[in-house]
Structures are given as structure tokens and as C-alpha cells.
Amino acid sequence: MNKPLSLALFCLLLPITAHADNPADERRRLLDEGSRQTQQYRESGWLDTEQARGEVEETTAIFR
């Protein structure tokens, strides 16, 4: 393989290898975001309503 072609292939594959750990980081980020939103809902009193209980139960059922 000649050098320009090798370099082009390397540049194309670099983003794939750079994001190898990305799923774990993305999961952690989403969990942190969910925790932050839950805290905001708690502070606003939204979680104490009937509507909130229904939506939480719906969402929980989807993820099971």
C-alpha cells in the first residue's frame, strides 16, 4: 500500500478507534443527565403529582 493511501485509510479509521470507549462514556453521561433532571423534578414538586407517577410507571415499563 502506498503512503498516501495508507494515510487516507488511517484518517478514515481514526474516528472509529477514537470512539471505542464512547458507549461507556455516553451511558455515564446519560445517567448523570437523568439524575440531574430527576433532582430538578424533585425540587419543583413535579414528582409528587399523579401525572408524574403515571409517566414514571410508563417509562419504567418501557425499559424493562
From TrEMBL:
<protein>
    <recommendedName>
        <fullName>Periplasmic protein</fullName>
    </recommendedName>
</protein>
<feature type="signal peptide">
    <location>
        <begin position="1"/>
        <end position="20"/>
    </location>
</feature>
<feature type="region of interest" description="Disordered">
    <location>
        <begin position="27"/>
        <end position="64"/>
    </location>
</feature>
<keyword id="KW-0732">Signal</keyword>
